[in-house]
Amino acid sequence: MNTRKTSALISLSAVGLLALSACTSTTGSDGEGSGDSLETINDGQLTVCSESNYPPFEMEQDGEMVGLDMDLAAEIAKDNDLEVHNVTLPFETMVSGAALDTRQCDIITSALTMTEERASVMDFSDPYFDNQLGLVVKDGSEIGSVQDAIDSNARVGVMQQTTGDAKAKELGLNSVQFEDVLMFQDLESGGVDAVLDDLVPIAQHSEDYPDFVVVEEVEADDQFGVGVRKGDTAMLEAVNSTLERIKSDGTLDEITEKWVPITEQ
Question: One GO molecular-function annotation for this sequence (predicted)?
Fold first, then answer.
C-alpha cells in the first residue's frame, strides 16, 4: 500500500426486464475475430451491456454512450462485421449473470472485475485493464490513511458489489453502499467521510471536485475482463481474438490513453 498523500489526479499507466423473446442470428466473421460463426441476440448487432454512469469507462454524452469500454466493444463488433447496440443495466443485474442468461446482451463491458464468484455465472475474456483502488477524502480531512478511517470509524462510501465494496469489508471499514457514483457527491456534501473506489474514476471525478485527494492507494489484484455467456465459446474466442489484435497493434494503448486521465508527477 502506498500511504503518501497525492493529488486525486494521479499518474496511471496505460495498460488497464427479462427478455421474453430474442431474435438469434448467425454471423460470419470476416474481420480479425475468431472465424467461427457467432450467435447474436439481434441480427447484425453486438448487444453490449454496461452501466450508464461510470466514467471514463462508460458514460452518456449528448445522448450517446461513450467511454473506454464502448471503444473496446466497437473494436469487437468491427472485427465481426456487427454494429454495437448498447443496453444500460444496473450493475448487480450484470454481475449476477442474469443479463447474459436471459439474452439481454451478448457481452458485458462495464469495468468488470474478474472474480471466482463471477466466473461461476459467466465466462471471462483475457484481461484488458489492470486496476487499483484509492481512498479519497476532501482536502483538510483528518483521515490520512485506511487505518485512520478504521480507527475513527469513518463512513466510507463504496459502490455495491464492486472490488471497492469487497475490499472495504476485508479491511474492516465502516462502509456505506451506493448503487452508483453518487457517493462522490455525498463526499463533497459531507454525507460520507471518504470514498474507496477505483483510481481511474477517482481521477475523473476530481475534475468536478478539485478538493479531493487520494490519501492511500490500495492494492486490489484487480483486472477487468469482458463477460460472455457461460459456454459461448465462439463469442469468447471472438472477443479474445480482438483483444490480442488491439494489444499487439497498439490500439488498446490508444483507447486507454484517450480515456484515462494521466498526469506527470
Answer: ligand-gated monoatomic ion channel activity
What is the Cα–Cα distance from 196 to 136, expressed in whole angstroms?
A: 6
Global pTM value: 0.68
CA–CA gap between residue 212 and residue 180 (Å, rounded) = 18
Determine the residue type at 208: D
SS3 (DSSP) at 224: strand
- Between 160 and 10, the higher pLDDT residue: 160
In angstroms, the CA 146 to CA 4 distance is 11
The values of phi and psi at residue 144, to 5°, are -115, 0
148: Cα within 13 Å, side-chain hemisphere: 13
Task: At 197, list the grid cell.
Answer: 473506489
Rounded CA Rg of the chain = 19
Report the CATH architecture of 25-128+225-259: 3-Layer(aba) Sandwich (3.40)
